[in-house]
Amino acid sequence: MKKAFYPLVIVLLAAATSCVYPFELEQEATQELLVIDGDIVPGSSSEITLSYVSPLTNDLSAPVRRPLTAVVRLEVDRAKSEGGSQYYEVSEPTRREQHGTVYTVRLTDPALFSPSDPGAHRYRLAVENGDNGHTYVSEWMQFDKAGMHIRDVYSRLTDGESTLSILMDFRANGGYYRISYKEDWHYTAMYPTNCTYIVPPVSYGRPVGNGQISMVPLGRYECWNHAESYLLSLVENESHSEEEVNGYLIKKIRRSDTRLNQDYRIDVQVTSISPDAYLYYQHLKEVTEFDGSLFSPNPSEMRGNIRCVEDPDELVIGFVDLVRVAKQRRLFSRAELPIYVEPKHYFDTQPVPVPPTQWYTYYKQGYLPYYYDPDTNSTLWADKRCLDCTISGGTTVRPEDWY
Predict the structure, then answer these.
(1) Beta bridge partners of 369
(2) DSSP H or E run through 97
(3) Are 171 and 155 contacting, i.e. CB atoms less than 8 angstroms apart?
(4) Distance between CA atoms of residues 41 and 20, nearest Å
(5) Which residues sit opposite 325 in a β-bridge?
(6) Do residues 44 and 108 touch, judged by C-beta distance below 8 A?
(7) For residue range 293-350, what is the model confidence (pLDDT) as tens digits?
(8) Domain ranges (residues) in the chain
(9) Separation CA 130–CA 231 (nearest Å)
């Protein structure tokens, strides 16, 4: 799959549906197309993302344009004896992300969803786009199957004990599922420091002096990092009305990965999706793996469940699906993880003594001091990648919810 298409895939892979409207993305299309995607989650918070995509460019570094104003509404079709239909809407976005503007609508009223009777109500999305005054709606949707739950998330050494596999057991209860995860990990640099190098001023391209050593530690020994799944992972269990899915592989981690350096946490999410959503995702995977672009010389028929009320012929991209979500968080402490294998760096990891006359030279070569003895004015230096954990992409800021 072409990496350049991932951001667009992420935009389109957030939702699905039970009723679909066929349309074809013509290569000759010149106007921007509205993208509406998200999940309706009764009993919880539903996130809907709005943006535009242009068929004139595949430059994913260009800013994504978003509707200037919009009203996002979730409608619940209830019996008259229950008070009739209700709707919940928001006009202020929750946040603006790279791939679009996110609106959050909460359906947390217990009366809007009954676990004992999941098919009692119907739901749909309506979006009023302030840019053109048009309203876009999905079809009414309702649940037809019982829920599911995650029983366990665990790890196992595989591939000759060179890899740690993160696995999951869950009760599928038939149907189709989308698997995703978020992960956080705590790790350290190779060496702690007791000092910091103060770079000398430079005049006419030459350093004025050798610089100084401060007895303040560098403060980049301990870091945390975060990542999320970006490739689409689907599970089909339609042939079984109720079955345990055991040993589902979530991801593999090399023993030399910093995820296994100290502590590792993963949040796994299983989202039930409709049969049409499953077909949509499968088709989208085939299109992107084959071509890498929606607007390619070989147009593909895409299917969405969003239509424009005022202009049914208007092309709209996206799926909005009625889903249920099962989540489980698992923290693997240092004691539970296998022995971390230091990666074989291409640079010298051994500390070296450096005299003051060579401090600036070593600094320019990518070294930093990690130990300083003020009594003898002697220092030990190492490649900065052995001392600064942020170079691996992490941050020294501890997550607020870290244990």
Answers:
(1) 381
(2) strand 95-97
(3) no
(4) 19
(5) 271
(6) yes
(7) 444 333 334 557 899 999 998 888 888 999 988 999 999 999 999 999 887 664 557 8
(8) 1-141+287-334, 186-224+346-392
(9) 33
Contact 255, 322 (CB under 8 A): no
Residue 99's pLDDT is what? 80
Asked if residues 320 and 47 have their Cβ atoms less than 8 Å apart, the reply is: no
Q: Are 16 and 278 in contact (CB under 8 A)?
A: yes
Which tokens belong to 270? Answer: 């299983």
Query: Which candidate, 99, 26, 10, 17, places its Cα nearest to that of 273?
Result: 17
**Residue 142: which of 168, 112, 105 has the closest Cα?**
112
CA 320, 230, 104, 323 torsion: positive or negative? positive
User: DSSP letter at 395?
Assistant: B
pLDDT digits (tens, 9 = 90+) for 221-258: 999 999 998 767 888 876 555 578 889 999 999 999 99
Q: Provide φ and ψ at 237, rounded to 5°.
A: -135, 30
Short-list 10, 4, 64, CA closest to 32: 64
Q: What is the DSSP string of 300-365?
A: -EEEES-EESS-TTS-EE--EEE--EEEEEEEE-TTTSPPP-----SS--S-EE--GGGHHHHHHT
Sequence-separated (6 or more) residues with CB below 8 Å from residue 21: 303, 304, 305, 306, 307
Does pTM surpass 0.90?
no
Rounded distance between C-alpha atoms, residue 150 and residue 168, angstroms: 7
Work out the average pLDDT over 7-27: 41
Provide the 3-class DSSP secondary structure of residue 233: strand
DSSP bridge partners of 97: 100
What radius of gyration do the chain's Cα atoms show?
27
**154 closest CA partner among 165, 146, 145:** 165
Q: Given this model, what pLDDT does residue 147 score?
A: 72
